[in-house]
Amino acid sequence: KISLNPLKRINRDIYTYAENKQREIQELKRMETFRREFIADVSHELKTPIFAAQGFVHTLLDGAVEDKKVRTKFLKKAAKSLDGLDLLVHDLLTISQMETGEIKMHFENFDIAALTKEVIDQLEGKAEKRRITVTLEGKNEQHFVKGDYQRIYQVMMNLVSNAIKYTRKEGEVSIYFEERNNEVTTFVKDNGRGIPPKDLKRIFERFYRVEKSRSKEKGGTGLGLAIVKHIMEGHDSSVNVESEVDVGSIFSFKLKKGKPVAHRFAEEEDEE
Ligand code: ADP
Fold first, then answer.
1. 211, 218 in Cβ contact below 8 A?
2. Pair 247, 173: CB distance under 8 Å
3. Which residue among 50, 70, 180, 195 is least packed, with the fewest CB closer than 10 Å?
4. Which residue's CA is the closest to the ligand 1 atom numbered 11?
């Protein structure tokens, strides 16, 4: 009398093996599609500034431009395209390093309100140009979090500069914090043009822009929010957005509460 049990087990093992292999193949296919699309997107994005710079430089080389003022204007435009290209390549490198896990997070305790003050200082010129008020609520409060300082700085920089870019002139941007249980949530709010519901889910994809030409005009790389998403994932967290067209947007992200520490740079400054 033969017991069927061992056969059943073998059958089940073969089935599981086949299922796993199929899953692996699907994952490889998904990565291949991703890689192909990424290369296509990147080539397309690189072409725009290269094409523009090329046009200006060749026109100048052809010698058709007599007027010195026009010549300078052309050179300035070529330089602007090349600066855009530089930014794009930098962001691409960051994103590819994040996707391959080459960038490791360095966690430490810091005061996110102090970090925000530095970001606001750095963006002051941009905000003034568009006469936008940037307010940090609860100015003297401290909110200690645990995270990668440099990366969270990058997140804040992206969110606040977007808020400034996509808000109407003389608009208002405010940043505030909420502490609950073991978490600190940071909110970046603007009263700008807002984002239509159909685009809301997609703005974190690389190169996705609402109103492509209008957003491109603003000079971004279209990678800012994709980088933000990656950084927050590296913190086992996510970035959220609520938005209403013509009313404004609120971007928010959560971090774990951190231990109180002296200001990051205070130590160096205090050293004799
Ligand atoms: P970009 O470099 O184009 O700013 P991002 O990845 O930072 O790229 O943002 C993607 C798109 O999301 C932007 O092009 C813009 O259309 C939209 N967006 C981002 N932030 C805001 C905001 N605060 N208000 C309205 N639209 C926004």
1. no
2. no
3. 180
4. 209
In short, whether 210's Cβ falls inside 6 Å of ligand 1 is yes
| Residues linked to residue 135 through DSSP beta bridges, in sequence order | 174
Identify the bridge partners of residue 241 per DSSP, sorted by sequence position. 251
Q: Whose CA is nearest to atom 7 of ligand 1?
A: 224
| CA–centroid distance, residue 18 to ligand 1 (Å) | 43
CA of 196 to the centre of ligand 1 (A): 12
Q: What is the distance in A from the centroid of ligand 1 to the CA of 232?
A: 17
ipTM score: 0.98
CA atoms within 13 A on the CB side of 160: 28
Read off the pLDDT of residues 167-205 as tens digits, 9 standing for 90 and up: 888 899 999 999 999 999 999 999 999 999 999 999 999
Contacts of 1 (CB under 8 A, 6+ apart): none
Task: Give yes or no for residue 110 CB within 6 A of ligand 1.
Answer: no
Instruction: Write out pLDDT tens, residues 87-124.
Output: 999 999 998 888 888 888 999 999 999 999 999 999 99
Under 8 Å CB-to-CB from 150, ≥6 apart: which residues?
106
144-164 pLDDT, tens digit per residue, is 999 999 999 999 999 999 999
What is the distance between the alpha carbons of residues 200 and 105, in angstroms, rounded to a whole number?
Answer: 28
Sign of the Cα pseudo-torsion (5, 11, 13, 19, in order): negative
